[in-house]
Write a structure and sequence with these properties.
- By secondary structure, this protein is an alpha/beta fold.
- The chain folds into two domains: 161 residues, Lyase, Ornithine Decarboxylase, Chain A, domain 1, CATH 2.40.37; 173 residues, Alanine racemase (TIM Barrel).
- Helices cover 29% and strands 24% of the residues.
- Strands 4, 14, 15, 16, 17, 18, 19, 20 and 21 form a nine-stranded mixed sheet that branches.
- Helix 2 runs parallel beside helix 9, helix 7 packs across helix 8 and helix 8 packs parallel to helix 9.
- The chain is globular and about 70 Å long.
- The N and C termini lie far apart (52 Å).
- The relative contact order is 0.15.
- The structure holds ligand LLP.
- Ligand LLP binds next to helix 10 and helix 11.
- One of its GO terms (molecular function) is pyridoxal phosphate binding.
- Specifically catalyzes the decarboxylation of meso-diaminopimelate (meso-DAP) to L-lysine.
Amino acid sequence: GAPFFHFHDGALHVEQVPVAALAREHGTPLFVYSQAALSAALAAYQAGFEGRNVSIHYAVKANSNLSILRFFAQQGCGFDIVSEGELERALAAGATPEKIVFSGVGKTRHEMRVALGYQIGCFNIESEAELEVLNEVAQSLNVRAPISLRVNPDVDAQTHPYISTGLKNNKFGIAHERALAVFQRAAQLPHIAVKGIDCHIGSQITTEAPYLDALDRVLDLVDAVEAAGIPLSHIDCGGGLGIQYQDEKPPVASDLWAKMFARADARGYGERHFMVEPGRSLVGNAGICLTEVLYLKPGEEKHFCIVDAAMNDLPRPAMYQAYHTITGVQEAATQNLASAPLYDVVGPVCESGDWLGRDRHLHLQQGDLLAVYSAGAYSMSMASNYNTRPRAVELLVDGSHVRVVRQRDTLAQMMQAEQLL
Ligand code: LLP
């Protein structure tokens, strides 16, 4: 997005702040987020929901920094969580418990107790066994647990197999054929309150068709479940909308939702309470990671550019062969790239899988700064201390204002939980 990350006087800026100054002050690797980009991404959803009954539940796993969560809480969003840790983060950031939904195939009894104690809005149930356990836990607390059933619509989201979740052979959700029977069971359980239905078919989805197909399949079930005398007060369509990393052209949220509501209207469901659980599409293109070129290593077949960020900071290339745009931070270095040497941009971690970009044309010198784009989602939240590398600093920029929203791990922190023999 040009307005948030852009060249001005030849230098890369985040909003009004030149990134080179940020790297000098805070060191690298360094994540920098743009608050205006977060606002714009959220506005694209809100525009599509104008005049509709929709609630947005930001998927905490995409970027769980407390300041990012607080931003979304202040904008009125709810949250989609998958663990006690994410629940406590959301609450610490100011979330309203009623607007929290709890997803995930492996909720523990302890997590259920904690979430019931806070009176969260809904448990998205992923299996028949989980439903029975939640009923027991709710009974032990003498409460009724609000639930939806996550159904598996068996549609192909046409995304990377590791992040596709709506096909029959995935571990997620309840099979379409079983769904009615499980709703009937849920309706009989004394400590369960059936609230809704939900689905989530995958992530980084870049076409509309899987969403519309999934909606049709879910609405078929709503017809059947309500015909069986079980009213559903909400329909949760999950997250999954993709972003542009390279040359993808994902639908904008407002266009996608115009089509979704046209479909829902045609089937008489346009007035229902819809819920969404977007993660990546709200934060992914709101962040970059700045990294310094440590060494250039010319080779026979190809050259290596060794940077100070690695797979522990930016795990997506190593895990999914994901593409992230990488550029210099001086505009001059981004011109005439066809004539520039070809590099693999790699990190210092001791694994061949530790790469951030392959076969990239770059004009480079030792000591240069590089920007890795689309680093707002599933980067810091998936970062690790592998190779006992500290997780990076995170900054949130708002206009010309810069806030440190996470400090770099210290060496003491990384060893703090361990004991010497
Ligand atoms: N709801 C549920 C139930 C989910 O499992 C997910 C993501 C979301 C919502 C948010 O999906 P999003 O809007 O962000 O696509 N680490 C992978 C992505 C894993 C997504 C897991 N579930 C990556 O870096 O591509």
